[in-house]
Amino acid sequence: MIQYRGSAAVAAAILMLSVTSQAKEPEAQLSVWTGCGDNPVSGTTKFMVGPTAARYLTSKAKPAEGVERCTAALDALGPEAGWERSAALLRSRAKFYLTAKQHKEALADLEAIAAIERPDLPYSRSFGVSLNMLRAIGRLEAGRRDEAASEAFLAMQARPWSLRVAEFAFGLSSLRTKIASGEGSRWNNLVRLDPTYVEKRAVSLARAGDWQEALVDWQNATPAPGEIGQTFVNVPNVRVTGAPGIPIKGVNIARTAQAVIAAQVAGRPDLAEMWLTKAREGINTPHEATRFERDFNIATQPSEQIAELDKWTGLIEAAAFVGKGDAEGAAQKLETMTRMPFSQTTLALFWTVISKLPPESHPNLKSLLAQVEEQFQLDSNEQYVSQFDPAKLLDEVPDHEDVMLANPYQTAVKFLRANGFSVKVAKDGKTADVGFFGNKSHPFAIGEMALLRAADLAASQGKTAFRIVSNNDFVQTSTMTMYGVEVGPTTVAGHSTRLKIEFVDPGTSQKAAGIIETVDIQMALTPIYVKAEKK
Q1: How far apart, in Å, are the Cα atoms of 273 and each of 32, 79, 155, 259?
Q2: Residue 239 DSSP code
Q3: How far apart are CA 437 and CA 64, in angstroms?
Q4: Using alpha carbons only, what angle is made at residue 297 by residues 295 and 299, rounded to the nearest 5 degrees?
Q5: 3-state secondary structure at position 291
């Protein structure tokens, strides 16, 4: 966190200027893509704290105020106004409608844009992506999950190398009740951009019935199923949102069991047994408690973890029947289970078994499936509430590239806010840390520029490909203080992406799914960002 030191009077003056100076400043010439309804940002505040912080310091307009202002602006449009101006105003009003939970009105405005738009590449990558995301949010609010996912897929197609857009699309996709077969390749770039998604895709593939592909992903997951890594525990009176519990070091039972089920259904009982053996060995291997575990007095007992693993035995045995081609045996096994662990793989297993049975057989199993589907709906609704906050998502949608502020694609200067990229190649020349920080650019652009720098670096090292080991986004905040005491609000000062990459030679890696060809990135992103630098 950056701390700005000064006096309380200076802090108060900055905040006062953000309000009072608006009336004194001459009105700048607006772009046709400038929206409506928001409270204006003071130019003086921009000068004093920067454009990003100034935007966060400016109070937000209430939804009703925004709708009223945008409606007035639309009514005032003359016949000479182009479709671009109408689209910009309609989009702004749609955002206010979504904030007010009025998805019908929002979707109507967004459909009105679709009827008049004439997209080109800059439009599709920025304003068009924002429309896809807004339609997805509106349709999700309306309970139309499949349509929401389809809109998110369109956004991902327009920016195929944006991790944030891909994460948005994958999150909406996972909320669907049914996933079609053959979607695995849709997420290839997501897995390349963030290797942690390989096991999430494995679960998605299982739900689609693509068990062989799911198994391949589980084999590529790190750590391997059954090995010690990150797991989760629940502590009384502590509620964790966005995760199944408090993260600690150990064997992830649910993760291992789902991989074992995939191996059994795919006809690889040898892998299933190997992963189960690893899990039992890992559970019984003592490990040094982390500071977090010591502070919260968290002690996982091997006997309790083994008991938790044993709860999956019935599902694993049913999966083994499926792998042997015995759907009848799998159905009978599932029908005898009075209690079972719930997961997306559990749901996938039920669908697979029922799809292989005669239509009118095993009504009890179909009744069990209805209960499992109901649990999935409850869990996914909770996921929606915790992860898909419309207010947060509305702040993330990009504006048209013609009006968005941007940091140039260049090396960071090692003082001030260090806008630009930074690189540190390891001494052995095999890996490197690549980062990009910007106080103006949209987070989508920040991530893409970091990726482009990674590709350029790999090429300069004589490599035609690289793999992302880790991919992390950060928000840098600023707080005005006086003698260490906060005297002003905390604001966003910029965004950064940090990549750890490994240089590889295509064809020599054991995990080909994560390899990124440098030429693919350079061809896609160089014309966008290097061209902008030359202006």
Answers
A1: 63, 72, 41, 11
A2: -
A3: 35
A4: 130
A5: helix
Alpha helices in 159-247 (DSSP H): 163-174, 188-193, 197-207, 211-220
What b-and-e string marks burial along 476-493, b requiring 16 or more CB atoms within 10 Å of the CB?
A: bbbbbebeeeebbeebbb
Write the CB contacts of 130 (distance below 8 Å, at least 6 apart in sequence). Answer: 91, 397, 398, 399
If phi > 0 it is left, if psi is from -120 to 50 it is alpha, else beta; for residue 330 that is alpha
Q: How many residues does the chain have?
A: 535
- pTM (2 decimals)? 0.85
Radius of gyration of the chain, Cα coordinates, nearest whole angstrom: 26
- Tell me how far apart the alpha carbons of residues 527 and 125 are, in angstroms, rounded to a whole number: 13
Q: Which two tokens stand for residue 442?
A: 């949209």
Distance, C-alpha 259 to centroid of its chain:
23
Quick check: 349 and 316 in contact, CB under 8 A?
no
Cα–Cα dist 525/500, whole Å: 19
Instruction: Please answer whether residues 444 and 56 qualify as being in contact, where contact means their C-beta atoms are separated by less than 8 angstroms.
Output: no
Q: Where are the domains of the chain?
A: 420-529
* pLDDT tens for each residue of the chain, 535 residues long: 333 333 333 333 434 334 434 444 444 567 889 889 887 766 666 656 566 666 666 667 899 999 999 999 999 998 888 999 999 999 999 999 999 999 999 999 999 999 999 999 999 999 999 999 999 999 998 989 999 999 999 999 999 999 999 999 999 998 887 888 888 999 999 999 999 999 999 999 999 999 999 999 999 999 999 998 877 766 665 665 556 666 777 889 999 999 999 999 999 999 999 999 999 999 888 777 666 666 666 667 788 889 999 999 999 999 999 999 999 999 999 999 988 888 899 999 999 999 999 988 999 998 888 888 888 877 776 666 666 666 777 778 898 887 777 888 888 876 655 789 999 999 999 999 999 998 888 999 999 999 999 999 999 999 999 999 999 998 887 777 777 777 666 777 788 999 999 999 866 656 677 899 999 999 999 999 986 444 4
Q: How far apart are CA 476 and CA 407, in angstroms?
A: 15
Q: How far apart are CA 233 and CA 436, in angstroms?
A: 35
Tell which residue, 63, 31, 54, has the closest CA to residue 127: 31
Q: Check: CB of residue 168 under 8 Å from CB of residue 132.
A: no
CB–CB of 201/258 below 8 Å? no
Who's near 283: CB < 8 A, 6+ residues apart?
Answer: 250, 251, 302, 305, 306, 309
Specify the DSSP class assigned to residue 404. Answer: S
